[in-house]
């Protein structure tokens, strides 16, 4: 393992590292968040020219497009031909790794770089706010790791380090005015060594800091869903009230990195039925809300993909009507994943629970049968 | 007449709508055996035949709950007996997730049951139907099924 401490400004140091990777010829391209020409938003940019990296924002204050989707699009028709660095938030990296398992990303030739993520602002509050002020506040958060006004889900994020990347950029636990570069894989080590970085820095301080923050986030997250958010949405009344603003636009699904299906069941002709079907349902219920199948869409998606949900919050950013979609999915996903002790992105060899089984498991989810005559009159 | 009863919604008049998803090999086979022995199951239990419990997507179950069912019970081949080798292993994982999604949203995952029934177990099939019917009668109507704003 190679782990080095880099002295100097964290922001410039991070960009300098990317520029060196590209400039020294260790890689042929870098995918990194970049301010758009108008300056008021960010997009992922596939950079070939090293000097361009100087203007990049490897840690962007907002997540406009989920990086997992970016990498999926980049490698849809085959692996990259030149080694390419992709700079991803931890949740984007988890999504990308989940997509590798789902055969939606070809990982050959990709060098992943991830970092201690301070969180992101809600897209809307960023676009409507004063961009320069927000950018300054965000850069400050890289120092103390407290991002006021971050998305609610980011505030209870429990996977905020780049430990699953080839190269991790570590801010936590590093003395002010320095940061760590940590290689976790042979490819990462090779890239660091190509830049002349060798050695094994003592990471005890960092490990302690990460552990402490993780522990507090885990309990905050659990408490948030159990005491604050959970009661607001649980039960038929509250849940439907939560979805009353939903216009069934399916934006949440389209931006979701995990929802890769070319055709979604919930957009298929299976749900487009003849008028008599709607009339029958309206008669039974006394009326039928249009657009129909809102609850079916959301709960159906929870069944289909909550096991792989990385809690990135892209869905909530994309919702035009402020439905707390990402928190709902995170709350439900935490519980469905717990059944299988599964964590999306953790291990590329670990199959997705729906694609795997044990011959003896989950008996507690079956109804035990005790032969009796209590209920069945015909057995007399 | 049935409709009026439901509108009242009082305990004694409540007749639950129950969907019984049966796999084409063991579950429906169980119902054949039950028929051969003239065993009776409650008339408000409606069989729903699927080729395999592994083919029972969550959207069928959710749709049933949203559009009128008060309970859904699923029966198929015992683990290891699946006609397609691993359909019911997959089904068990899916059912666990379905129940947990309902639980997490406060929609009562206990309205969804999974119990294996072999081709010869006609008695077990009707027992399950009666037991589940009693279980749902105790729970009362499923709130979602009566709401127009789903």
Query: Runs of chain B with pLDDT <50, length 5+?
Result: 1-9
The structural class of chain B is: alpha/beta
Class of secondary structure makeup of chain A: alpha/beta
Cross-sheet strand order for the largest sheet of chain B: 2-1-3-4
Explain what the structure shows.
The complex is a heterodimer of chains A (380) and B (150). By secondary structure, chain A is α/β, with parallel strands linked by helices. Chain A has two domains: 3-219, no CATH class; 230-348, no CATH class. Chain A contains 14 helices and seven strands. Chain A has helices at 10-23, 67-74, 90-101, 123-128, 131-144, 152-155, 186-194, 204-233, 236-243, 251-255, 275-285, 294-305, 314-318, 325-340; strands spanning 3-7, 29-35, 42-47, 84-88, 110-115, 167-170, 178-183. Chain A is globular. Chain A starts with a strand and ends in a 40-residue tail after the last helix. Chain B is α/β, with parallel strands linked by helices and 150 residues long. Chain B has one domain (14-143): Rossmann fold. Helices cover 42% and strands 13% of the residues of chain B. Chain B is built from five helices and four strands. Chain B has helices at residues 2-8, 27-36, 58-67, 87-104, 122-139, and strands spanning 18-23, 45-50, 71-75, 112-114. Chain B has a four-stranded parallel sheet, sandwiched between helices. In chain B, helix 2 (27-36) links the parallel strand 1 and strand 2. In chain B, helix 2 packs across helix 5 (122-139). Mean pLDDT of chain B is 92; it is low at 1-9. At the A-B interface, helix 9, helix 11, helix 12 and helix 14 of A face helix 3, helix 4 and helix 5 of B.
């Amino acid at each position: 393992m190679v782990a080095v401490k880099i002295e100097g400004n964290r922001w410039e140091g991070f960009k300098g590292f990317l520029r060196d990777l590209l400039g020294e010829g260790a890689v042929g391209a870098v995918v990194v968040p970049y301010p758009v020409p108008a300056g008021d938003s960010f997009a992922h940019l596939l950079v070939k020219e090293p000097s361009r990296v100087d203007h990049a924002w490897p840690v962007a204050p907002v997540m406009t497009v989920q990086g997992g989707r970016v990498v999926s699009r980049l490698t849809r028709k085959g692996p990259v031909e030149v080694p390419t660095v992709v700079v991803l938030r931890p949740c984007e990296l988890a999504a990308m790794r989940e997509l590798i398992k789902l055969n939606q990303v070809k990982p050959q030739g990709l060098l992943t770089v991830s970092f201690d993520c301070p969180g992101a602002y809600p897209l809307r509050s960023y676009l409507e706010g004063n961009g320069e002020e927000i950018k300054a506040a965000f850069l400050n958060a890289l120092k103390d790791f407290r991002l006021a006004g971050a998305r609610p889900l980011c505030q209870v994020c429990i996977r905020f380090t780049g430990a699953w990347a080839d190269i991790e950029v570590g801010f936590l636990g590093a003395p002010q005015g320095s940061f760590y570069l940590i290689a976790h894989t042979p490819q990462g080590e090779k890239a660091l060594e190509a830049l002349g970085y060798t050695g094994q820095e003592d990471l005890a301080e960092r490990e302690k800091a990460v552990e402490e923050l993780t522990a507090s986030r885990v309990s905050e997250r659990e408490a948030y869903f159990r005491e604050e958010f959970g009661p607001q949405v649980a039960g038929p009344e509250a849940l439907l009230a939560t979805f009353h603003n939903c216009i069934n636009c399916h934006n949440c699904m389209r931006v979701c990195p995990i929802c890769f299906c070319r055709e979604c069941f919930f957009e298929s002709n299976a749900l487009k039925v003849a008028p008599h079907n709607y009339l029958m349902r309206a008669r039974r219920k006394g009326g039928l809300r249009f657009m129909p199948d809102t609850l079916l869409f959301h709960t159906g998606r929870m069944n289909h993909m909550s096991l792989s949900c990385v809690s990135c919050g892209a869905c909530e950013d994309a919702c035009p009507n402020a439905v707390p979609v990402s928190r709902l999915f995170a709350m439900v996903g935490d519980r469905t994943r717990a059944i299988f002790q599964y964590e999306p992105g953790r291990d590329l060899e670990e199959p997705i629970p729906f694609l795997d089984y044990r011959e003896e498991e989950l008996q507690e989810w079956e109804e035990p049968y005790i032969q009796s005559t209590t209920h069945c009159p015909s057995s007399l | 007449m049935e409709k009026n009863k439901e509108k009242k919604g009082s305990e004694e008049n409540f007749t639950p709508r129950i969907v019984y998803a049966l796999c084409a090999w063991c579950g429906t086979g169980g119902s054949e055996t039950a028929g051969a022995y003239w065993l009776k199951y409650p008339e408000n239990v409606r069989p729903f035949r699927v080729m395999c419990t592994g083919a029972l997507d969550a959207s069928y179950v959710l749709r049933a709950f949203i559009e009128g069912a008060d309970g859904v019970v699923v029966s198929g081949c015992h683990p290891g007996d699946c006609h397609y080798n691993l359909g019911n292993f997959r089904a068990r994982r899916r059912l666990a997730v379905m129940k947990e999604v309902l639980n997490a949203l406060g929609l009562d995952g206990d309205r969804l049951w999974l119990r294996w029934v072999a081709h010869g177990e006609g008695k077990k099939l009707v027992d399950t139907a009666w037991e589940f019917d009693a279980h749902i009668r105790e729970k009362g109507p499923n709130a979602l099924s009566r709401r127009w704003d789903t």
